[in-house]
C-alpha cells in the first residue's frame, strides 16, 4: 500500500513480520485442508459413496492440442484460422474394392 501511495508511512518491521506469519499460517491451513479433503475423497471412493472420476480423453481443444493419430472425418473441421476439409469417398466404395 505504501508503494502505491495508499498510505504515507512505510510498514513497520512488526507489520512485515505479522504479514509473513499470516501468510505462513494460511499456507499451512491450506495444506492441512487439502490433505483432509484427499483423505475424505479416498474414503468416499472406498465406501462407494462417490463414483471415481472417469478418465476421459479430450480431443481437439484449441489450447490443448491432441498429439495422437488423426483420423480423417467425412465432415469438415474448422478451429480458429485452420481449416481441414472432410474426406470424400465415392458412394459404394469400401475397403473390399481395392483388389
TrEMBL record:
Biased composition (Polar residues): 74-84
Extent of Low complexity compositional bias: 85-99
Protein name: NDUF2 factor
Region (Disordered): 54-99
InterPro entries per UniProt: ComplexI_NDUFA12
GO cellular component term, pick one: mitochondrion
Domain of life assignment: Eukaryota
One of the protein's GO biological processes: mitochondrial respiratory chain complex I assembly
Amino acid at each position: 500500500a505504501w508503494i502505491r501511495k495508499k498510505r504515507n508511512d512505510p510498514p513497520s518491521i512488526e507489520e512485515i513480520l505479522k504479514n509473513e506469519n499470516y501468510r505462513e499460517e494460511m499456507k499451512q491451513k491450506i495444506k492441512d485442508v487439502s490433505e483432509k479433503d484427499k483423505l475424505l475423497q479416498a474414503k468416499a471412493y472406498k465406501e462407494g459413496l462417490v463414483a471415481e472420476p472417469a478418465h476421459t480423453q479430450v480431443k481437439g481443444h484449441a489450447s490443448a492440442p491432441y498429439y495422437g493419430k488423426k483420423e480423417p472425418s467425412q465432415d469438415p473441421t474448422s478451429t480458429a484460422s485452420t481449416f481441414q476439409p472432410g474426406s470424400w469417398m465415392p458412394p459404394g466404395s469400401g475397403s473390399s474394392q481395392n483388389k
